[in-house]
Amino acid sequence: MEAAQPKELSGEKAGRIVEAMRSSVARRGISGSTFEHVAREAGVSRGLLHYYFGTKEALLVEVVRRDAEHRVAVLDEPLAKAATVDDVLQVLVANLEDSVRNEPAFWLLLFELFTAGRRNPEIEREVAGLFNRTRGHVAEIFRAKEREGVLKLGDDADAVVAFLFAVADGLALQMLSDPERDHADVIAAGTRAARSLLGGE
Q1: Mean per-residue pLDDT, 149-157
Q2: Measured between alpha carbons, how far is 154 from 151 in angstroms, rounded to an integer?
Q3: From residue 127, how far is each of 9, 12, 113 by CA, in Å?
Q4: Which residue has the higher pLDDT, 106 or 82?
Q5: Domain count of the fold of the chain
Q6: For a designed S-S bond to 139, which of 42, 67, 133, 157 qualifies (C-beta 3.0 to 4.6 A apart)?
Q7: What is the pTM of this model?
Q8: What are the φ and ψ backbone dihedral angles of 57, each rounded to 5 degrees?
């Protein structure tokens, strides 16, 4: 069965609903985040959530969709300006470190959804599609940088981006699980591995 598509909801109410679900999952987890909690925290009726999203799963996917779009959007301009492999790597590393430090709820929700997707095919299918679109967008940027002569990809752009995203996801998990540790050495090792894939010396 296909996931219910949320009806168009834009503006300030949508932002409040998405933020309320994001913060609720960060505090209570997915199972403890009910429409009642979210509606109360967003200052809207529970009926409005049901009308626009239908199910909690659809709202969760919408939260991740918006967060992922934001994550990619903040990469677009600095990557477009990148003139060297090291410029590209600096943008990617800075984005990861900033999101873990300032937007940990994005990662917490992402990891919660991965776990939930193992039990719920609807969530698994929607999140997989979202990840594919996100990776595809960044892969197109990499292909453009390769045409400019900035990158010399060691493998297909989609495979390179999938690898880099996997490294970033793993690093984020480690950084959130052990915030007292200095992860600079791990980030440096990952950066060296990434440099070789992007055509650096």
Answers
A1: 93
A2: 9
A3: 20, 25, 8
A4: 82
A5: 1
A6: 157
A7: 0.80
A8: -60, -40
